[in-house]
Amino acid sequence: MRKVHVELGASSYDIFLGHGLLPDLAAFVGARGFSAKALVISDTNVGKLYGAALLEKLREAGLSPELHLVPAGEPAKSLAVAEEIFTRAIETGLDRRSPIFALGGGVVGDLAGFVAASYMRGVPFVQLPTSLLAQVDSSVGGKVAVNHRLGKNLIGAFYQPEAVFADFAAFATLPAREIRTGLGEIIKYGIIADAALFTWLGENADDVLRLSPEAALHMVARSCEIKADVVSQDEKESGLRRILNFGHTIAHAIEKETGYSRYNHGEAVAIGSLGAAYISRSLGMIDETTVSRVRELTERLGLPLAAEGCTVDALYAAIFHDKKTVGGKVNWVLMEDIGKVVVRSDVPEDVVREAMERCLEKG
């Protein structure tokens, strides 16, 4: 087992990484002094695979857990589904020391975290991410939210978990597409903070795509270290943390315009990252060789290079509903090099539209 610490003062916690972490989770729970009643939130896919084993281990740790399943997929990340979970929590008798466990991917983690942050003004929350994407991104950093029909993640909070247990055993049932979507975020970490990681991904693409134990540990741990370092310096996104949004402005617009169904999050981030690279090139911040390196790695790892089912007008309108837009100005995270980015809010409309057009081009 490997551990990454997220330093946030009284809200600090650890990310535990490894294979077969249920015994470690049980030991952690037994030492925390939680109330006995607990709620495990999962989806209809993951819950059927891992719910029973988790409940058994939590019982061994002294809890009386119940499992609540939500529909698999992005539409479950809504106020309506959150209300159903609030009702279940009240009916179950959860109190302020009752833990909520998020067993699943990013949707489950965001939704369960939002419920945990809101129920009785905050109850203990433990992340158990089962997808590569959730392990390297959404389970770390304390951003929890649900979507609104006008935009993604617009209703939420900053609420840190008690711990994150990233168990690689869940990779055994992870579809190939879900591996690739996690890689969309891992590429992002290389672009924003670690040129060596970016290069390593290309040099070890075969091991990366099959999630060999060594490759999985290296890229998940390194991604978590980068995010932990950024979050420790800027928990509530007042400055530095904005760099974690690289690629996400266009990505969220693509997700919204395709009904959160055609592209999963990492695929949209991959396309959005290319869009940010195109903008950076148009502004003279990087050269075409750097753009080509981003495109080549994106393609090598099986991610899409362009989006279908969108228009430039719709994408451009959607970015103004993004939470990173303040005072009508979009805060773009742009490249100065691989491994170095900067936030700018002075990007002309024609440059953005041109980049979006390239994001919709095939071939």
UniProtKB/TrEMBL annotation:
| Record note on cofactor | Binds 1 divalent metal cation per subunit. Can use either Co(2+) or Zn(2+).
> Which SUPFAM superfamilies does the annotation name?
Dehydroquinate synthase-like
User: Where along this sequence does the record place binding of NAD(+)?
Assistant: G106, V107, V108, G109, D110, T130, S131, K143, K152
Pathway noted in the entry: Metabolic intermediate biosynthesis; chorismate biosynthesis; chorismate from D-erythrose 4-phosphate and phosphoenolpyruvate: step 2/7
An example of a Pfam family matching this protein is: DHQ_synthase
Name the needed cofactors. Co(2+); Zn(2+); NAD(+)
Alphabetized, the UniProt keywords read: Amino-acid biosynthesis, Aromatic amino acid biosynthesis, Cobalt, Cytoplasm, Lyase, Metal-binding, NAD, Nucleotide-binding, Zinc
Q: What is its EC number?
A: 4.2.3.4
Q: Decide whether keyword Zinc is in the record.
A: yes
Q: Which GO terms describe its molecular function?
A: 3-dehydroquinate synthase activity
**What is the official name of this protein in its record?**
3-dehydroquinate synthase
In its UniProt entry, the species of origin is given as Selenomonas sputigena
The gene that this protein is the product of is: aroB
